[in-house]
Amino acid sequence: MDQQRPLLYFALLFLSYLIWMAWMEDHAPKPVITEASSAATTQNIPNNNGNSGNRLDIPEGVATAPAATSAVPTEVVQANKASEIHVKTDVLDIIISTEGGSIIQADLLTYPISLEEKDNPVRVLDRAKAYAAQSGLISTAQGLAPNHYAQFSSPQSSYELLDGSTELVVPLTWTNGKGITVTKRFTFKEGSFLVAIDQEVDNQSGTVWKGNNYQQLTHGTKSSSGGMMMGIQAYVGAAYYNEKYEKVSFSDMEDEKVSSVIQGGWAAMLEHYFVSAWIPPKEEKNTYYTNYIQKNNRYIMGVKSPQQQIATGTKGVFSNQFYVGPKNQAELEKISHGLDLTVDYGVFSFVSKPLFWIMQSIHNVVGNWGWTIILVTLLIKIVFFYPSAISYRSMAKMKKMAPKIKELNERFKGDPQAKQKATMDFYRKEKINPLGGCLPMLIQMPVFMGLYWVLLESVELRQAPWLGWYQDLSVLDPFYILPLIFGASMYFQQKLNPPQMDPMQQKIFAFLPIVFTVMFLFFPAGLVLYWVVNNLLSIAQQWFITRQIEAGKSTSVIALGKKLLIKKDS
User: Fold this and answer.
1) What pLDDT was estimated at residue 143?
2) What is the domain count for the chain?
3) What are 212's strand-pairing partners?
4) What is the pTM of this model?
5) Residues spanned by the domain of 167
């Protein structure tokens, strides 16, 4: 039986995982589509027919009523074309259009684009990408409610949260001239990326007003971010919450439309590190929908509320929240249940989430993410010290017995079955487990992959410095020092392993340090730092165990907390 090296298994598993993730990006199962069954939540949504200026872009499968449009006379609309309202707080710089009161641009003032562009904030909502947050009202009768094409008015063209103030309210007003007045209020808070948006309907029309509220996110391009290798990237697309985290990629929207009635929840558009999301009241049952407008290449994720009736002479309010900001898990969890899942760790979330908690706890003490990575690597190494010791002890025995194994291979060269039987008998006699070096590595695989996604997805590590020229652990090593150290450590670690009998496998192993070094050139510096530290600790442990075996001593290593007991026997 040929020897199988743990490193080769691990390399193949790691590469297979990357290939699988790339495949899943294009072939993942479509989300379950459930048709809305409640008349109270499905009626009165307009279809996509008619003039583009009046179209709400909500799929026909969700709605049947005619488009609700502004009843402002044509000449007034033309003379009062859409203008922009500039709103600035301590953390947000936003532009709201008077057409529908849509948020068409949102900059995050506390998150610069890069360390080289510290004065330029990250732009999440972006008119250049048709990435906007729209909201509006729809009613059973034409002219009774303003959709996101209706023209609003505002008393000011700019608003700013002044020093010493904790709240800023931006009102927009629409009226049909027949007793219906809608006031859309945006309430901003100091230090918050969460915006409260209320649509108040003042009904003085003489009849009962019936209508619904809707909010939607529209995205016009298939952008990507968080680039790794082989198509492995942070997820970019839509998502919503239906008692579990549901992703709807742009390609899914082109194939099928989601229409599902959900209590509470949220609807979001995700990018690497940042997210925008509509959060309706948690007690409401809302219709969640998606749509793809091929004509102008727009992808839509939206929410429609139940119908509300407002008696004449009274007012009614539709209240929602809108978040646009970083994917900060602690903050998102407070806003809405499951919103923290937009920090998408994939299938290894069960490992990534506790790992991130540990890293966050360590960072609270040391205050540096580079040293945090080093300390968590050491902690992981301590936890897996005993399984690693089994692996290295097995490899050390294999290396010591390599000449005898080679002799067996030569003796039974022409008889594969006899060679296999003799080799297995030899393993049993010498108490060698040929898989002993592989299985402990497999146990550690979920931890490695979990940490991989923590370092890729966590906005807390974005632009986090370590030391020297490492001022951003989320980007590539500018001088490729860590990848080169990793390659050298991998090469040196191979020298501690037993030589491979198969010449082809020898060539593969000789080439692996080069392959992984090239791969790691494109990995974030924080991830490469983890691997370098892990390799150096592994080399130290493997060197010690190999030295003990070669000296003719058997070692048993027991990891108990921070105490490592080594008992020697002849």
Assistant:
1) 84
2) 2
3) 138
4) 0.79
5) 38-344
